[in-house]
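Below is how a single chain appears once it has passed through the pipeline. First comes the sequence as given, then the structure the pipeline wrote out for it. We keep one example in the README because the format questions we get most often are answered faster by looking than by reading.
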Amino acid sequence: MRLAYAAALALASTIAVAQAPMSRPGSPNPAAVTGGTYKADPDHTLVVWTVDHLGFTPYTGIFGGVTGTLTLDPKNPNAAKVDVSTPVSKVTTASAGLTDHLLRAGKDGGKPDFFGANPADARFVSTRVTANGDKASITGNLTLNGVTRPVTLDATFYGAGKMPPEMGGQENVGFRATARIKRSDFGVSMGIPLVSDDVALEIAAAFQK
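Resulting structure:
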C-alpha cells in the first residue's frame, strides 16, 4: 500500500512539473535589448510582399532565408546599422506557375520577365537610422535585380530577451517593419498596370547573438 501511494505521489509530482506554467522569454520592453552585433535568424525572418492583382484582390508572396547583421547600441539607437541579404531564388507564392515564372530564364537568352533563373540576392544596407522610442525610420540602399535605390523602412520594436538554455540560450531581438517600393524602379515591369507597380513590404525581422 505504501509503495502504491509513493508511486502515485511521484506520478502526481511529475505531472505538476510538466504542467507548470511557462512564460515567454521575449519582452516588449526595449530595456531588454542588449548592445552588440546580432545575426539575422533565417528561419524566423520573413519579407512579405503584396501587389494589386487586376484590381480584384491583393496578391502576396514571401521571401525567407534572410542573412546578415544588425548592430545595436541601446545608449545610442541612432547608431544602429543593418546589412541583410535575401535570396530572391527562394521566393514563394501560392501558385507554382507564378513562382516558376518569377524565376524563369528569358526566351532565347533574352531578358527574363521577372528575376530570371539565377537571381542575385537582394541586399539592404542602412545609411541612416532615426529612432523615436520603440520606433525607427531606417533609410538605406536596396539592391534588387541589379539595381540600387534608396528605401526607407518604418520599423517597430517587437521584443527582446534570452532563449531558454534548452533552445540555445542566445539573446534575441525582433522587429516589424514596412516599406513601399515600385518594382519598375528595379527593372521588374512585366504586367504593369494589370499587376500593380507599387509593392507593399511587411517584414518580420529576428536577430540573435
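Residues 101 and 114 are 7 Å apart (CA to CA).

See the next section for the split statistics.
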